[in-house]
Amino acid sequence: MKAAMIRQPCFRSCVHLRNALEVHEKSTACTFQKGRQKCYSTQTENKITTVEKKKPKRRMKAWYIYQYGGNEELTLSEEAKIPEITSPKDLLIEIQAASVNPIDVVMRGGYGRNLINKMRTWLGRGSGSEFPLTLGRDFSGIVRQTGHLVTRYKPGDEVWGALAGQRQGTHAQFCIAGENEISKKPSSLSHIEAASLPYVATTTWAALITMGHMRENSFHDKRVLIHGGSGGIGTFAVQLIKAWGGEVVATCSTDAVALVKHIGADHVIDYRTEDVLSRLGDIGKLDLILDPVGGEAQEATMKFLRPYHNYVTLVFPLLPNADKHGFLAGMAKSAVDLNFGITKGISKGLTSYRWAFFIPNGEALKKVAVLVDSGKIQPVIDKVFKLDELPLAYEKVEQKHGRGKTVIDMRA
Ligand SMILES: NC(=O)c1ccc[n+]([C@@H]2O[C@H](COP(=O)([O-])OP(=O)(O)OC[C@H]3O[C@@H](n4cnc5c(N)ncnc54)[C@H](OP(=O)(O)O)[C@@H]3O)[C@@H](O)[C@H]2O)c1
């Protein structure tokens, strides 16, 4: 028999309640009262239950840096202020897990500060100091509040996303995200698994589609070389191109050969023990090269591209130039560097040389979520750290030999 529910405020507060709603048996002794929380008694036929409605949290744990430097600059605040929505298209997200990317490690040292701070000012996200700064670009979490122009999400939705560089980051228990930076998370993944993908997925998407000028359905007769097939970008890119029907050639070091084969690469070249160029000569001409490693050895593979096809590199000096030479001089120097790369591409067989970079892209994440839920892309997780262990995660990523992704569990 269903019991009639009578809700009546009793203004008690019990210190042992932790969740937003918790039910107490009649016999439960409630200690109160600080006057901060309202407590409701709900009377049923055979028992009294007490349902407490907690005020929204105002404080959170967040990792901050107060100046640029090494890992010693990372400071955990237990009483950080939860960010507030200031734009009608933004959402407040309670982060369940976030990943650590090489960009976080280099931003900790000041990488990109000139360009990122300029963008922060242009976009009206603060013109003063960027400190205290929270690093971290991607997350999986739960929507807690929405701005009044947000139409696609509501509180309680499970979402994933990757945030623009000028926003405060995700190495905290809450963040503000724009509606266009997120999508619903794949329902088949846990938050830990989901958090491993958004930044590498949107960067790879930008490299292949936006800057690589490919279309999602145009890979079926294409052969793509991916340098660094064992890292965060590599393990995602191999699976994405296979999901789109392409043929994948990937380089990696010896211990990662089995992993890279397992995620679907058709040809795996162990760059430590094999002659990469002679293996590529045997495999045949390439339609695209994705290079998240950078360097002369990688650029030497350009000559295996078909004429007028793209060499897309994720490693280029735009941000460091702005840091070193100032904004305007840095932009001018970057234009010269890009021209140098383009000329090099032309001289190595009329190939097109392009820089690619992360662009927030909720629509791409939505499409990736479909591929994940259909089993075509699986997260590859190297190690999971607790929130309090974040500096250890940075140390690991700094070594640049990831086997998939490093993830932070915000709830642990
Ligand atoms: N432009 C952008 O917006 C953007 C965005 C994301 C990433 N990136 C760039 O992409 C890089 C990789 O990101 P990630 O997340 O994949 O990092 P990661 O998880 O640390 O992976 C780095 C990978 O590079 C491989 N590697 C290193 N030297 C290599 C070589 N000579 N040949 C082949 N593979 C080599 C490593 O494999 P082994 O251990 O087998 O050597 C490792 O798997 C970042 O460092 C960053 O420079 C740029």
Automatic annotation (TrEMBL):
SUPFAM superfamilies: GroES-like (SSF50129), NAD(P)-binding Rossmann-fold domains (SSF51735). Pfam families: ADH_N, ADH_zinc_N_2. SMART domains: PKS_ER. Keywords: Mitochondrion, Oxidoreductase, Transit peptide. It is found in: Mitochondrion. GO terms for molecular function: oxidoreductase activity; zinc ion binding. GO terms for cellular component: mitochondrion. Residues 69-408 form the Enoyl reductase (ER) domain. InterPro entries: ADH-like_N, ER, GroES-like_sf, NAD(P)-bd_dom_sf, Quin_OxRdtase/zeta-crystal_CS, RTN4IP1, YIM1/Zinc_Alcohol_DH_Fams. Belongs to the zinc-containing alcohol dehydrogenase family. Quinone oxidoreductase subfamily. This is Enoyl reductase (ER) domain-containing protein. It comes from Dreissena polymorpha.
